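Quick start: read one record
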Amino acid sequence: MLKEALLGSRQDFTKGDLNRAILLLAIPMILEMCMESLFGIVDAFFVSRLGADAMATVGLTESLLTLVFGVAIGLSMSTTAFVARRIGEHDNEGAANAAVQSIILGILVSLVVAIAGVTSAPALLHIMGSSPAVEANSRYTQILMGGSAAIFLLFLINAIFRGAGDAALAMRTLWLANIINIILDPCLINGWGPFPKLGVLGAAVATTTGRSIGVLYQLWQLGSGKNRITVRANQVRLNPTVMWRLLKVSITGILQFLVATASWMALVRIVSIFGSAAVAGYTIAVRLLIFTILPSWGFSNSAATLVGQNLGAGHPQRAEDAVYRTARLNMIYMGTVSILFVFFPQIFISIFSHDPAVSAPATSCLRTFGLAYLSYSWGMVLTQAFNGAGDTITPTLINLLAFWVVQIPVAYILAIHFQMGPRGAFWAVPTADLVFTTTALIMFKRGSWKKQKI
């Protein structure tokens, strides 16, 4: 089964053993998400050697990019729902049309992001509370935001593969992109061999190059005719009807993730009040958290695909069973990681920094966020199940409640009013995650998502 999952399975995920279906989808999706998180981990590893200001540049830029990721993930979530539903209905033509319209939409949105990033990078960093030394590295921000088309297409085309059930293709795309990034990162940062020494800018060039090569591989696979979904030349055209249906689901999907990601921007803005060392420590801890949470997104994405395909095939009970089984597996994984982060955070932080001013807030952040893992493991799967069904409104409302009504006010009150500093901001996260998961479980049990039409 492991071999089949890695090479690509041809199983019909609306029939047969459900546990097998979950693992055939989850294994490559977990490895895909591990590869996605490696972009940040590799950058953090090499850039951390350049000092706190360079690391703060990466952290603040990543906070800005969370908005980009929010839009990309929102679009990709609706894309997965559309493609999975059409595949479950055995409508391959409809799945291909949805894929083309999502790619066109992603390119249009990425142009707006690229223009804003290239022309306004120093101002955007200043808004985030950067120091003059950080703003001097604004070309790093320009390169990453200017190359946002690669970010959008990487997310969207992988969402197409996942919705169709070709999870192994999405996994291989991220493997390729990361191999390029891992090779180029130290060469361009340090000037190894024939490469110029670009410092922190080299990390941006390496990451954008790796992502771009990954996109070229995706486009080749879409047109190859060897996979579950194939886009032919005569299908590459604007289809207003399909575009509008996709856009209606995408708008609330984008809003859903913007609500969540913007709250993290607000959180790092609160942390930045306490200086570059606090931001650098927060950045290191968050990179480690992302590295461990993204595999959990692999479980969640498998649940979304199974929900979409089984609703399309007329099997709502099988869709519900898939969600609960996936959530239990996710809880086992995240519970294990939680133990490591709560009791042994220094082991992981020491990989990136031995500076006490940086490692102290990083350790506090990692330990505190680790406490939220058990509850969040269920919340992630449940909200992705809503998205896989095409119900993007419910998770949006849940995010508003958890991240803006709870997380940001609690972070500000604890950090500023009670003078707990960064530690106060960190404690707002497990509080919000508990509200997030409890609300998601209540809404999921109501069952209205089973009647969603897209």
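Residues 52-88 form the longest helix (37 residues).
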